[in-house]
Amino acid sequence: MGVGTKIIVATDSWHGSVEWCKAFEGSLPDTLFFPWDDSGEPVGADYAIVWRPAPTLFVRETRLRAVFNLGAGIDSLVGLPELPADLPIVRLEDAGMAEQMVEYVVYGLLRASREFSAYEAQQRAGEWSGLPPVNRSHWPVGVMGLGVIGERVARAVVRLGYPVAGWARRAREIPGAQVYVGAEQLPAFLARTRVLVNLLPLTPETDSILNRENLERLMPQAYLINVARGQHLVEQDLLDLLASGRFAGALLDVFRSEPLPQSHPFWKHPAITVTPHISAITLREDAVNQIVNKIGKLKQGLPISGRVSREHGY
Amino acid sequence: MGVGTKIIVATDSWHGSVEWCKAFEGSLPDTLFFPWDDSGEPVGADYAIVWRPAPTLFVRETRLRAVFNLGAGIDSLVGLPELPADLPIVRLEDAGMAEQMVEYVVYGLLRASREFSAYEAQQRAGEWSGLPPVNRSHWPVGVMGLGVIGERVARAVVRLGYPVAGWARRAREIPGAQVYVGAEQLPAFLARTRVLVNLLPLTPETDSILNRENLERLMPQAYLINVARGQHLVEQDLLDLLASGRFAGALLDVFRSEPLPQSHPFWKHPAITVTPHISAITLREDAVNQIVNKIGKLKQGLPISGRVSREHGY
With respect to CATH, is domain A97-274 assigned 1.10.3720.10? Predict the structure, then answer.
């Protein structure tokens, strides 16, 4: 008979690990939570709950039965050579993130299609002058990546009355939206899209997918909303397309280098809105409930959702 | 046997009247459309289609059987002493306006609750720093006026996951929203509201309803979205509440005087966003279809919706 379950919590800071431990404390019977300490001793943990953990975690803790990632994107985790090949990874599936992502994307879409940035410029100039009314048919929205969050975003935009298409690796149905599948159908998906929303996982296949070749396939005066990973976008290609007038603008929440370096041209670009990776923040309470629920199921030998496919990288 | 139906089209400009005539032409069999001309002769019109018409219209055209207003708000029309007391008025009920109003209100709500204006200020300063995640429960939305458009707005905000209440003259049901009724319940409605959306008709009872006394009842750090009429708001009271820190901001599409005068303090106020009465523009095609459909019904003696109650003023 053991001493119960041990769980190590490892985020990108000592402070963060302690805060998450506190949030989990008392949530599972007969379970102890340990914050990760770079210079600490092995605790013999059964599970790890992580967000950008120190790679040594997987060297020191050798009894792990599963890793829970405190986010939807697991690209930084699966890239670690220290991660045992057979260790199951479980990602957060929503934890309040889909709702936030819907808000962020809808805001960006409305700002573009309803020309709120033009009206702001008019206000600064003290100018009163209506622009032609928006016709939704001129603003087809395309959502790349149709996971839990992408599907929620697509459905929300369908409800607003915009033409919507999605692009995914595998065929699926989203009422009111046309779904394009695989590399073959990517050009057709892009050609009918004006507002491109990127919600793809970052994998070797999707790295730099938002490059000149693909972005040039979009409708004229296109608008990019990137809420996935900075590595999806070839940043100079976007700048070139904006400079040539091919692109209208972009709302960007993620960047190749974060924080976005002070000297980066995005900061001062009049057609680019920069936000500091806040489109969807893991809500602690939702995350705790989801992970606790899944650990409970694992301990009873029940199946859980959100298992990462190491082959596909998400 | 007459010469068919005659319809006079009178907007606030000759050019506008001619454009609308063109839009209606050919839409009804055996019907002639005449643009209003200030110095013209009576045409003996059966119906008038109007938007801020010259009051003399109702003196010159004495055979009118109904007036169709090219907008949802009929306050400027019913205020005309020349308007015969028994002439039926029909207002536009949607004509693409509800969808636009949903977009405008949702944009304002997200901009406030997701702190996009703070992030824009950070971008101007080259500052990378996340703010605490939004908790929708801190942003209860209250919709004043639950007509066709108000109800659509309330439902859209319910779907986004915000707490929603509505306020109306008469009791009604909106799934997911609490409805407060009448003057008695106005204080309670305001006390639970942080983002106040005004979609009321302008009547003697609602004139200046957005005054200090009522605005002070809102939750701290309140935000006002006014998309109804400028006369609903006591503008100096809003400025005072912003100055005292009681209010967080406002998105205003309508004003006591339009265009907003150059010297008006709203133009330069950092917490006020001004748009030039564009929240919902009558879409010509939708308006034509709706009015043509109703005239067809009237000629067959069938009932139509959108009849204005002169007693209630909407």
Answer: no
